[in-house]
C-alpha cells in the first residue's frame, strides 16, 4: 500500500486491479489491466506524477492514474515476476527487484534500463534508494536476510549489512548516515552507514512488519518521548503499535487495544505502517485488510476503513437519521459503517460468530446475538461511538434470531437452536441516556420468560408493531403466533412444504408474512390463521422478507442472489433485482422507507434507493413535453410549415405523422418540387430516420407512392457513396427491392388493363 503526497489517496493492489481509495469519503476507483494478470508490485513517484505497476505477465505499465489510462507498457526484462519496486527522490529513476534475484534500474524520462544488478540470493523483496541525491546508492534485501548497498556509479555491491536472522521487512533513513531496519526475527537494528556496522540492536519481542521513524520535530510527549534522539514505531504480529527509544533500546509507549493480545500472528496482526506527514497521521493495515488512521502525536484512532467482510450474515440501518449501518460478518466482531464517509468501527465483545441483529425504533440502541449463546445490547452516543451496555446469557445453544420491541425500548426476544424463545426485559438504566452514560461495564440481563416453541431450529422471530404479539418460524415448516405478555401460544400457521426462514408482521394490517425454503412467500390472517395469499416466483429458498412502500409491497431475497419486489394487491412480481452472486442473508429498509440495504454471502453490502417517485416525475414531464410537441406539430401543419413539421414528427418518432406530412406536401401545387426541397434540407440523422420509415410505408400499396417519391428524392440528391454511409442502408435496400418490384408489376398489369378497356371503348364507338 502507498499514499500520495498530500495523504488523501491510498493506492493498493487487488488481483489484476489497482484500487485508489479517497481517505475522506472512502470512495473507490480502480485501474484495470487489459489482461487478467495479478499485480505483483507497484510504485508511485514522490511527485505523484508517475505510477508504475508490475504483473505476472512480466510487463511493466506506466499509468496516468488521474485519467485512469495506461500510457506505456514495456517488458520488465526480468525472467520472473517483479516483487518490489521504488522510485528515487527525483522521480526519474525506478528500481525493480525480481523473483529472479536481479535488480533493474530504469530511467523513466529516457525510457531505458540503466543498470542490471546481480548478486542477490532469492527473491528481492525490498528496494530503497538513498534519500540523498548526491549519494547514488540503492539498498536491497532478499531471502538471505542481508541488506546490500549498491553503488549506482559503478554498478557493484559496496557492502553487505549482516545482522538479521529472518526476512528484513522495512528500511528507514534517519539521516544520510543512519539506517533503521526491521525484521521478522523480532529485532530492529540501527546501522551507521559510514562504518557499515550495527550501532544498536533493539529487541522488540514480536515479528515486525514495519518500523517508522518519528520526526525529530513535534510534540510526542503523549507517546512517552521525553528526550531528544531517535524514536521509532513498530507494527507487527501482536497487532499493536509500540514506540521505542533507540538510545536505551526501551519501549516507551504501548498502544491499548480492545482485543486480547496473542503471541502468534492473528487477524489483528499489522502488515504495514506508514507515516503521513501532510496529515500528521500514522496509517496501519491489518491482516484482515482493515486500514486504520491514527493521530501521529497521540495514536488515537481517527478513521478506519474496513477491508474484506467475508460472509455477511445480517445488516441493519442505525442512527437517528439512518446515518450508519451495522454489519454482522462471519466473525465475532461487529462493524459499524458511517455511510457518508465509510468510516468503520469494529466492536468487540462476542467470542463466536454473530448470527443476527435488530435495532430499536429510535435507532440508537441495537441487539446482537451469536453462536456463543449470548445476546448483547449496544448503544450509539451522539458522537457516533458505539459501546456495549448489556449482556444476556441463558440459551443452551447458539442464538440464531433476535427481535426488539417496536413501540418502546422495553424488551428483546431471542430464539435459538435449542428450540426455545426467551423474552428479556430491558432495564430503565439502559434506556435513559443519563443513566446509561454512568455505566462502567455492561449490565447483566435475565430472561423473563422461556418457552419451548418448536421441535426444530427456530430461524426467525418477530415482534408486532404494537408489541403485543410474537411470531416464530422454524425448520419444522410451522410459523406460530404468541402473546408477548406470557409467551402463551395463540395459533399455528401451516402450509409451507419446507422450513420457514423468515417471519414479518405487516406495519399496517393484521397480517403475517412468511418465507420458506420451498421458494414461496405467504400472507396469513392473524384472526383466523388462514393463508390469504401465496407468492410464487423464486427458484430457490427465500431467506428474508420485509414490507416496503408503507406496507403495500413485499421485498424478498433468495439464496440465488436475487431480490424480488411484489405488489400485494395484484399478487405479481413487479421487479427483480440482480445485485448479488450468493445467498442474501441481510435485508432492511430505513425509517423513511426510501432506501434498502442488502447483504450477502458474496461479501458485498448493497444500498438500493427507491426511485419510483423520480421515475414518475420524469415520465410525467416527458408526457407533458410530448403533448406540447404534438400541439406544436398540429399548429405547424395548419400553418403549412412543413419542414419544421417533418423535423418535429421525426424527433417524436412518429412514422405515421411523418407520412401524413409528406401526403400533405404532395397534395400542394408542385407537390413533388416542394417535397424535394424539404427532404434535401433535413439533417443526415433525420434522413436516416425517414429511410427507416419508408421501408414500412413501401410494404403497403396505399402508401407506396409517397415512399417511392421520398426514395426518388434521396437517390436524386444523394451521391451513392454518401448513401452507403447511412445507418441501416443495407437492410433497407434489401427490404425495398422486392416490394418495389411488386408495385411496378402491379402498375404494368393496370396499364395493360387500361389499354384493353380503351381499345374496347373505341371498337364499340366504331360499331355505333
From TrEMBL:
Places the protein is found: Nucleus, Nucleolus
Gene3D superfamilies in alphabetical order: YVTN repeat-like/Quinoprotein amine dehydrogenase
MF annotations from Gene Ontology: U3 snoRNA binding
CDD domains membership: WD40
Origin superkingdom: Eukaryota
Name of the protein in question: Transducin beta-like 3
Pfam family, one: WD40
Originating species: Chaetura pelagica (Chimney swift)
Main location: nucleus
Amino acid at each position: 500500500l502507498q499514499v500520495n503526497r498530500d495523504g488523501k489517496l491510498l493506492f493498493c493492489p487487488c488481483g489484476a486491479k489497482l484500487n485508489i481509495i479517497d481517505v475522506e469519503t472512502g470512495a473507490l476507483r480502480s485501474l484495470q489491466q487489459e489482461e487478467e494478470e495479478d499485480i505483483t508490485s507497484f510504485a508511485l513517484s514522490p511527485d505523484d506524477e508517475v505510477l508504475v505497476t508490475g504483473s505476472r505477465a512480466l510487463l511493466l505499465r506506466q499509468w496516468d492514474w488521474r485519467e485512469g489510462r495506461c500510457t506505456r507498457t514495456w517488458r520488465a526484462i526480468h525472467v520472473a515476476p517483479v516483487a518490489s519496486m521504488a522510485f528515487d527522490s527525483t522521480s526519474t529513476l525506478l528500481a525493480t527487484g525480481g523473483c529472479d534475484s536481479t535488480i533493474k534500474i530504469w530511467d523513466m524520462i529516457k525510457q531505458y534500463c540503466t543498470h542490471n544488478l546481480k548478486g542477490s540470493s532469492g527473491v528481492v523483496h525490498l528496494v530503497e534508494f538513498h534519500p540523498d541525491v548526491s549519494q547514488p546508492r540503492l539498498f536491497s534485501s532478499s531471502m538471505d536476510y542481508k541488506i546490500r548497498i549498491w553503488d549506482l556509479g559503478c554498478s557493484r555491491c559496496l557492502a553487505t549489512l549482516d545482522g538479521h536472522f529472518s526476512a528484513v521487512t522495512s528500511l528507514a533513513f534517519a539521516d544520510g548516515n543512519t539506517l533503521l531496519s526491521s525484521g521478522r526475527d523480532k529485532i530492529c537494528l540501527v546501522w551507521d552507514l559510514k562504518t557499515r556496522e550495527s550501532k544498536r540492536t533493539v529487541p522488540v519481542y514480536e515479528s515486525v512488519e514495519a518500523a517508522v521513524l518519528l520526526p525529530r520535530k513535534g510534540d510526542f510527549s503523549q507517546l512517552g518521548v521525553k528526550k531528544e534522539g531517535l524514536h521509532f514505531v513498530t507494527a507487527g504480529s501482536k497487532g499493536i503499535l509500540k514506540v521505542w527509544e533507540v538510545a536505551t533500546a526501551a519501549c516507551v509507549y504501548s498502544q491499548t487495544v480492545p482485543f486480547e493480545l496473542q503471541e502468534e500472528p492473528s487477524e489483528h496482526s499489522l502488515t504495514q505502517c506508514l507515516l503521513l506527514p501532510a496529515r500528521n497521521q500514522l496509517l496501519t493495515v491489518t491482516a484482515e485488510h482493515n486500514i486504520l488512521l491514527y493521530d501521529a502525536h497521540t495514536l488515537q484512532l481517527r478513521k478506519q476503513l474496513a477491508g474484506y467482510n467475508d460472509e455477511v450474515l445480517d445488516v441493519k440501518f442505525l442512527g437517528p437519521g439512518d446515518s450508519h449501518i451495522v454489519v454482522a460478518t462471519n466473525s465475532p466482531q461487529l462493524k459499524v459503517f458511517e455511510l457518508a464517509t465509510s468510516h468503520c468501527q469494529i466492536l468487540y465483545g462476542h467470542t463466536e460468530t454473530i448470527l443476527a441483529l435488530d435495532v430499536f425504533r429510535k435507532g440508537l440502541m441495537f441487539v446482537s446475538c451469536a453462536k456463543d449463546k449470548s445476546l448483547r445490547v449496544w448503544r450509539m452516543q451522539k458522537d457516533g461511538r458505539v459501546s456495549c451496555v448489556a449482556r444476556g446469557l441463558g440459551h443452551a445453544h447458539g442464538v440464531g434470531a433476535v427481535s426488539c420491541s417496536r413501540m418502546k425500548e422495553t424488551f428483546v426476544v431471542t430464539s435459538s437452536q435449542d428450540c426455545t424463545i426467551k423474552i428479556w426485559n430491558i432495564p430503565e438504566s439502559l434506556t435513559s441516556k443519563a443513566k446509561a452514560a454512568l455505566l462502567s461495564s455492561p449490565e447483566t440481563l435475565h430472561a423473563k420468560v422461556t418457552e419451548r416453541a418448536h421441535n426444530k431450529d427456530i430461524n426467525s422471530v418477530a415482534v408486532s408493531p404494537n408489541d403485543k404479539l410474537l411470531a416464530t418460524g422454524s425448520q419444522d415448516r410451522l410459523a406460530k403466533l404468541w402473546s408477548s405478555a406470557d409467551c402463551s401460544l395463540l395459533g399455528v400457521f401451516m402450509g409451507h412444504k419446507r422450513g420457514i426462514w423468515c417471519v414479518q408482521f405487516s406495519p399496517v394490517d393484521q397480517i403475517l408474512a412468511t418465507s420458506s425454503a420451498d421458494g414461496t412467500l405467504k400472507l396469513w390472517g392473524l384472526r383466523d390463521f388462514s393463508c390469504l395469499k401465496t407468492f410464487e416466483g423464486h427458484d430457490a429458498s427465500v431467506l428474508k422478507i420485509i414490507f416496503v412502500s408503507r406496507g403495500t409491497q413485499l421485498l424478498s431475497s433468495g439464496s440465488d442472489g436475487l431480490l424480488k419486489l411484489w405488489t400485494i394487491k395484484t399478487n405479481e412480481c413487479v421487479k427483480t433485482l440482480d445485485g448479488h452472486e450468493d445467498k442474501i442473508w441481510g435485508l432492511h429498509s430505513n425509517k423513511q422507507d426510501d432506501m434498502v440495504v442488502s447483504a450477502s454471502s458474496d461479501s458485498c453490502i448493497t444500498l438500493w434507493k427507491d426511485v419510483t417517485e423520480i421515475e414518475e416525475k420524469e415520465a410525467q414531464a416527458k408526457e407533458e413535453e410530448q403533448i406540447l410537441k404534438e400541439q406544436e406539430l398540429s399548429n405547424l401543419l395548419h400553418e403549412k410549415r412543413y419542414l419544421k413539421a417533418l423535423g418535429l414528427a421525426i424527433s417524436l418518432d412518429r412514422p405515421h405523422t411523418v407520412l401524413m406530412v409528406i401526403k400533405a406536401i404532395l397534395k400542394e401545387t408542385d407537390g413533388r418540387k416542394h417535397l424535394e426541397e424539404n427532404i434535401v434540407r433535413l439533417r443526415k440523422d433525420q434522413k436516416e430516420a425517414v429511410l427507416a420509415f419508408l421501408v414500412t410505408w413501401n410494404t403497403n400499396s396505399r402508401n407506396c407512392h409517397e415512399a417511392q417519391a421520398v426514395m426518388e428524392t434521396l437517390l436524386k440528391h444523394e451521391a451513392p457513396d454518401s448513401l452507403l454511409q447511412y445507418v441501416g442502408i443495407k437492410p433497407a435496400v434489401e427490404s425495398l427491392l422486392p416490394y418495389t418490384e411488386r408495385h411496378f408489376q402491379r402498375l404494368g398489369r393496370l396499364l395493360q388493363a387500361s389499354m384493353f378497356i380503351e381499345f374496347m371503348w373505341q371498337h364499340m364507338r366504331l360499331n355505333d
